[in-house]
Write the structure tokens for this entry.
Amino acid sequence: MLWYIGRRLLQMIPVILGATLLIYALIFLRPGDPIAALFGDKPVNQAVVDLLREQYNLDKPFVVQWFLFLKGILSLDFGITLTGRPIIEVIKTAFPVTMKLAVMAFIFEAVLGIVAGTIAGLRKGKLFDTTMLIASLILIAVPIFVVGFVAQFFIGVKWGIVPPTVGGDASFERLLLPAVVLGSVSFAYILRLTRTSVAENLTADHVRTATAKGLSERDVITRHVMRNSLIPVVTYLGVDFGALLAGALVTEAIFNVPGIGNTLYDAILRGDGATMVSITTLMVFIFVIANLLVDLLYAVLDPRIRFDK
Amino acid sequence: MTNNPPYPGQERYVRSLEESPLQEVDAVDTESPPTSIWGDAWKSLRRNPMFIVSAVLIAFIAVVVAFPGLFTSQDPTFCELSQSLEHGRSGHPFGFDKQGCDVYSRVVYGARASVAVGVLTTVFVVFIGGVIGAMAGFYGGWFDAIASRITDIFFAVPFVLAAIIVLQVIKNLSNGTQGFVQGVGSVVLALVLFGWPPIARIMRGAVLSVKNSEYVDAATAIGATRRRNLIRHVVPNAAAPVIVIATVSLGIYIVAEATLSYLGLGLPGSVMSWGNDISQAQSLIRGGRNVGVLFYPAGALGLTVLSFILLGEAVSEALDPKARKR
């Protein structure tokens, strides 16, 4: 097992290096001069331009820029934004908000998805099952931003149940609606996954044996059906947590959440390359780590899977 | 044939042939041509109501995309501000948007851009991912090692995020207004560039599980080259999971286009698409005058995506013999 983890960690290095190089090339090999853009309509002072170029390493060849960026990341120095704030500080304020949002969305989708999915799977073809299937299909088919602003309009603006936007105050109450919207698509997937898995396991031989030996229905379901059904669900949840952290961009834009996605979106619109690269690298890192954890979790849950040395 | 024990002392009961399941074996028609996985799948698909519904819907959408003029006589670009946000009336069932354009005809004509993005992205993603995955799985060795690492690298960047960055770059490159072709082209490029890794991974896995089958060995034995083996025997038998994922992904790409347009980075505003109309409607529904400006384009998009998801599920059921029996 340790061997396997070590090998996977080693394998992560070229992937992360490659992904940062890819993003770096996309962002910095484009035409257009962000420094010149900073001046707007004012006359350009060449001395200031040269100083800024040097400060952002834009005067050096591309590969050197990339190396300097990597060196900075290793010492947790991400550089500064185009407006002069250290990027690490921006991340430090924005990341906890996104983390909080993602955890709330995660709890929502996991708990409700598994409970509803199990009930639907146990009563396949009944009214509850059909309703849930249709609801989940709608959630998957309609873009998240439509769900977002319909919810924002009715629940937040019209009925005033919860505050419609988050703004500077990322409290539990204000993050509630964005979290539900963020988790809604995954909720639909988890529900369907749990439902299929439970329905499939209900007909398994070991479940029939458990029923035949006289175990109560409740014990059969909790100890034999659920345990096996949740393996694919748990692995999905693991990958999804990484995706929630990385993919909160749209939800954060709708509800004006001061999180990492919103910061990144602003940076993209402003053409702030250093911030874009830093945050994207962070997201790639989270995503890769989440994938590794899921693979390890899979082995713990499913004893049939053993890692070769 | 009787069931009398042929030897004294043999008291074992032997079922008569009529009772034995051997009859089922005899009943198999050995004269008819062998059924393929695709033939079987098609047979069970035809009886699946989910397939019929989604196929009819998709056929209908295809007709709307090809001949929008059949469904509306209104010009979607003819707008009168005096009709701004008015409710539906005869000839204009869905009412008018903020500029006073007919919402119904915009929904009909908007199908073209959204569906074009979905279909083109799927075609390119399946081609690129399929070729890379199949070759990596089949040839193995150094090619597999390099292809798999490259796949991992592209897979590690979150999809929508990557598409946003690519589109922003394209926008900077082409500084100017984009027409329909360039607009759709750049969204497709952005989605394809980071959309192929999942397909490549699935294709590689499927090829790996197929390439050591007896029929591949048999083909090699009668002198098939490796390339012929790959194209004629391995790929057709490994394609099933890729086709399922591709069908479902087509819907996901349409949603992605709408999301990118909502963020202001997708299709240019001049191109009529569901995504653009939905994002413009966001600020309008607050006024509450004509909710149709949001509801109809979103509904059309949802229905299209839904039909592809249902089609994908029906195909996946048909291609999985285990699910078919149940």
Chain A has a mean pLDDT of 82.
